[in-house]
Amino acid sequence: MAATIIDGKKIAETIQQELAEEIKQLQAEHHLTPGLAVVLVGENPASKVYVRNKNKACHDIGIYSEQHNLPQEASEQELLALIQQLNHDDKIHGILVQLPLPDHIDEHKVINTILPEKDVDGFHPVNIGKLMIGEKGFRPCTPFGVQKMLSYSGVPIDGAHVVVVGRSNIVGKPIANMLLQKQPDANATVTVCHSRTKDLAAITRQADILIAAIGQPEMITAEMVSENAVVIDVGVNRIEDPASKTGYRLVGDVKFDEVSQKCKAISPVPGGVGPMTITMLLYNTVESAKQSLER
Ligand code: NDP
Question: What GO biological process term is on the record, naming one (predicted)?
Fold first, then answer.
């Protein structure tokens, strides 16, 4: 039987509508408009598209956003000075520096300079530490989006065996930590796999919830999942496709056609985790604005 489709685009739209309402309320009751600053260094075409999409998403729901473009040859000092300025700017509640940065700039130094209370990407070590110990803080947007997708779809996480394939700092490790926490929308038993894992299929077959964050096109096949599994595909991979106008198409880390014929529920690519990621950036920015009222 074909799996239920977990429609990330639809869930993202629902959350964005809720955020738009919250923003109206913040404006009416506190004269407060959440603000996001997006910093782009250089001319990376993919980064430019991401930044444009983030600004548009802000605009669509009523978040004030400003874009700061620095040239490719900008110094680390210049970038750090801009972040300091944004740290002190009261109309800015979230600061996002689009990665990757040019090689001559130290990414860790840059992230560490963003005030943790404006780190809406959730990459600052303070926010990562808070995630680890289950304290309130900003969660990285992609794993946060995965968690929201599961809870909005009514997938039980409490007690479930979650298998995460991938252990990166931006997806695999944080999602594993988030779902392990002793709190609602979590309480899972989590197994994390990676490229050195032995007999991967034997482990993925045990998953009630399988999260693929690998970066290998269509690596998860039907024989690697059980009939009862809920499969979340984080992967975004370009593969050649002469039939398409662009010459390529996007696929996930999961072989959708065959896995969707076997498992219980599955998120597609595109239209799954992608729209959720940007939505959680908006969510964190609104959250940061609300927290600024308490300071
Ligand atoms: P990384 O390359 O940083 O990490 C990939 C992980 O997968 C590593 O831990 C690696 O293991 C593991 N891995 C690679 N090959 C295998 C294999 N054959 N078997 C088991 N494990 C393997 O990628 P990211 O975490 O940054 O991203 C993962 C995917 O998610 C990518 O496709 C990326 O494009 C996508 N993505 C999507 C986002 C969205 O918004 N939808 C946002 C961020 C990422 P090891 O550690 O041993 O090398």
Answer: methionine biosynthetic process
